[in-house]
Amino acid sequence: MRTIEWNNGTVETIDQMKLPKEVVFIRMKTCGEVAEAIRTMKIRGAPLLGASAAFALALTAFHTKATNRERLFQELQESEKAIRKTRPTAVNLFWALDRIMGKAQAFSADCAVLAKFVVEEAKRIADEDVAANHLIGRHGAELVQDGDVILTHCNAGALATVDYGTALGVVRTAWEQGKRIRVFADETRPLLQGARLTAYELKRDGIPVTLITDNMAGYVMSKHMVNMVIVGADRILKDAVVNKIGTFTVAVLAKEHKIPFYVAAPKSTFDMSKTSAEVVIEERTPEEVTVIGGNRIAPEGVDVFNPAFDVTPLEYVTAIICEDGILSKHDFSRFDA
Ligand code: MRU
User: Fold this and answer.
1) Residue 276: CB within 6 Å of ligand 1?
2) Position in ligand 1 atom list of the atom nearest CA 282
């Protein structure tokens, strides 16, 4: 089942903040509703943010009352601006907006044709993501042996993408190939994407998964309980991989224990134009840290630092698995997305 669907002027997705307790679908008809769903983490995960940004523009195009091309383009620019302000780190969101707006700008046809094009381009972005994930799965599964135990962080699964997943796409393909693998899922504080989403997805698919808190990863590695790490990415730069907070800690631990550390991501996550010093790391509200499941766990008024992502220098990354294949650090630094 797809995480996001276009249905004749409505975008349907699962409210990821309600999982795994409840499976609630949300239906959005405006760009503003998509922006709000992104801000509130009902929609999350880098590739899904890309597809959602594209569908937000598609909603604007589909429901426009504009009668000329210039007016529709203005409306698309307003929607683009609103989506750009939602979350700053995952490059896929900006990549999808740039792709559609760049093509829309070069478009000389009339309003109705442009509107149709925007909708079709958004659907293409979503379909391409699914195809990329299956390829990532196929390439990555070559690295996985029967009996391997894989540690993952956050949720880089079907829920973070349009379907199938990146890191979990590799797990799924290896499992479909009959390899008897197991997964350790870091719970991923503060928003618990590992506990809520990765554990949910893998359990649903019958793939063996063991949940640990983030601070158990070192112990698990020291006891030789995992032999490979696979994570997703929000932005892959010339010098580093940006991913969910805690990824860098896992990478350092993996290096210390000589465990290979792989990053699985589509090329829509690559940003060769920047280095890590130039990327905005999103900081989110203190309540995500001080409150768990509606219960306050820290004293009122305590200072909180809540960066949503961290930066793992490429020296910690064994290889990057993308739809084109497995890129070593050296291939990667020459890569031109
Ligand atoms: O804050 P989130 O849940 O959007 O962060 C998601 C991650 O960090 C994922 O690991 C990343 O987007 C890769 S998803 C295939």
Assistant:
1) no
2) 1
**CA-only gyration radius of the chain, Å:** 20
CA–CA distance, 258 with 297 (Å, rounded to integer): 36
- Closest of 1, 11, 94 to residue 46, by C-alpha: 94
Active-site residue flag, 234 = yes
Rounded Cα distance, 230 and 171, in Å: 9
| pLDDT band at 329; cut points 50, 70, 90 | confident
Of all protein residues, the one whose alpha carbon is nearest to atom 6 of ligand 1 is: 45
Only one residue has tokens 């760009």, namely 31
What does the pLDDT look like over 33-66, one tens digit per residue? Answer: 999 999 999 999 999 999 999 999 999 999 999 9
Pocket test for ligand 1, best of 243, 249, 270, 310 (most atoms within 8 A of CB): 243
**Considering 129, 148, 163, 234, which one is annotated as catalytic?**
234
Please, which residues bridge with residue 12 across strands? Answer: 5, 27
Token couple for 194: 């590992």
Q: Which percentage of the chain shows pLDDT scores above 90? A: 95
Distances in Å between the alpha carbon of 147 and those of 138, 165, 208, 250, 320? Answer: 18, 21, 11, 21, 22
Give the other-Cβ count within 10 Å of 22's Cβ: 9
Residue found by looking up tokens 């999982």 in the block: 19
CB atoms within 10 A of CB 40: 13
Using a 6 Å cutoff on CB, does residue 245 contact ligand 1?
Answer: no
Contact, 197 vs 16, CB < 8 A?
Answer: yes
- Cα(53)–Cα(28) distance, rounded to whole angstroms? 12
